Amino acid sequence: MSGTYLGMPAFPTAAKDALANETLRGNLRHATHTIRDKRAKAVAELDDWARLREAGKQIKDHTLRHLDRYLVQLEEAVTAAGGVVHWATDAQEANRIVADLVKATGESEVVKVKSMATQEIGLNEALAAEGISAYETDLAELIVQLGDDRPSHILVPAIHRNRGEIKEIFTSRMGQWGKAAPDDLSDAPSELAEAARLHLREKFLRAKVGISGANFMVAETGTLAVFESEGNGRMCLTLPETLISVVGIEKVVPTWRDLEVFLQTLPRSSTAERMNPYTTMWTGTTDGDGPKAFHLVLLDNGRTDTLADEVGRQALRCIRCSACLNVCPVYERAGGHAYGSVYPGPIGAILSPQLRGTQSEIDASLPYASSLCGACYEVCPVAIDIPEVLVHLRDRVAHQGGKGHFLERSAIKAATWVFEHPGVLAAGERAATATRRLHPAKIPGAGAWTNSRDLPELPPESFRDWWRKNRTNGAARPGTRKDGGS
Fold it and tell me: Which one in 7, 229, 378, 392 has a CA-CA gap of 20 to 30 Å to 278?
């Protein structure tokens, strides 16, 4: 399986294939239900969770409204602390900046912290094209990389793999990337973790360049923060001589006090922990401690266009907790790969089409990858109304044009005219009732709608005719009963 999402089919096709994989569905069901249950207990411990949620929403909305000001403040603070800030309009520019920075050090390999932004721009593939090896150090990302796979979850990229599959990946592929797995490796979690630890240790000690993303950037001090659970991030962020961080421009928050809110909501929503095991923060460079050089690459890559959409911009509040994936009935059955994006699940269904546009078949299909049940909105720690944005994007897709959309608009226009003319509507109802036994089971030319839906059976008479027979000569008005009750 390729490491990129280019050329993947639309969601309905990819999801159909995933639904046929019983092992995948079992893995997803077990993992998502376990995480969601733990999260519910962690959130229930806080009496002020609703207020924290609203505070996170307000902080994010305020920052997005004044993003230009806070980004300039951030650049000034990072520069004053000894860092260097680079601005990247798109993925190609960001990849070029990072590749040039790595080559300037004379190194040909880097260690990486788990980063959605670098996956979004295809950084690993871009570095490989320049002769630079990028080693993922997060346990789940390591599994994905060794298995020549794609991430399928924001928090747990290898959620679609079980222990037996991971053991096979480690024993067959680890030796090709570095220290091999033990010959007697079992599928016990402790043994798998130890094999990964030994495999990565030599890379941590050898690497001169580290690459990361960031969960948050604090504008007032130029501080970046990475939340993680394994300690691999701490190694990548402190041991290398050069650190390069690629971060989306929406990750900035104004002050340290604002960061306090997310220090409470992100761990509970993502890993169901009261606080993160490893929260690493750094500000520029310091003599004798940490990297000697720090570069921050601020990534746009469609975010400015998303910000211009008054409804869609709320997707930029996302703090990548993955809570929406774990409660989504569609994701649970289809898995992350079906979304054809680094960002799977409900948040991916609204974020990816905005960052990439809805021109491609897969991006045009993503807003429809939902039942609109609303569970995603209920668990979102920054109150993103994902169903609202999904409907908004569906409207955008529907107005892009094409024969099918022309026919749909024409049908709606004709129906509007009929409803505005009661006599025509009544005649149509009588004709439909009289010919009901001749009606086809499916509407010709509407297979995409009727393949999974049956047309309703028409009653022997219309409601209009029934009313005329049973509610005449002073009978009860609509909404009342003859006995006077309401």
Answer: 378
Angle formed by the axes of helices 139-146 and 189-206, nearest 10°: 90
CA distances from 42 to 229, 273, 388 (A): 16, 7, 27
Distance between CA atoms of 397 and 392, rounded to whole angstroms? 9
When pLDDT is cut at 50, 70 and 90, the band that residue 1 belongs to is very low
Q: Kindly give, in sequence order, each residue whose CB lies less than 8 Å from that of residue 444, ignoring residues fewer than 6 positions away.
A: none
Q: If DSSP codes are grouped into helix, strand and coil, which group holds residue 311?
A: coil
Residue 429 or residue 124, greater confidence: 124
Residue range 64-82, pLDDT digits in tens: 999 999 999 999 999 999 9
| DSSP letter, residue 187 | S
Q: Does residue 131 sit in helix, strand or coil?
A: coil
What the block records as the tokens of 106 is 């004379």
- Report residue 420: phi and psi, to 5°: -80, -5
Report the chain's C-alpha Rg in angstroms: 27
In the Cβ-directed half-sphere of 229, how many Cα atoms lie within 13 Å? 14
How far from the centroid of its chain's Cα atoms is residue 151's Cα? 11
Element (H, E) at 29: helix 22-44
Average pLDDT over the chain, rounded to an integer: 91
pLDDT digits (tens, 9 = 90+) for 202-244: 999 999 999 999 999 999 999 999 999 999 999 999 999 999 9
What contacts 24+ positions apart, CB below 8 Å, involve 43-47? 43/268, 43/269, 45/268, 45/274, 46/264, 46/268
Give the model confidence (pLDDT) of 288-317 as tens digits.
899 999 999 999 999 999 999 999 999 999
Encoded tokens for 474: 């002073």
Among the residues of 216-335, which ranges form H helices?
Answer: 232-238, 256-270, 303-307, 323-327, 329-334
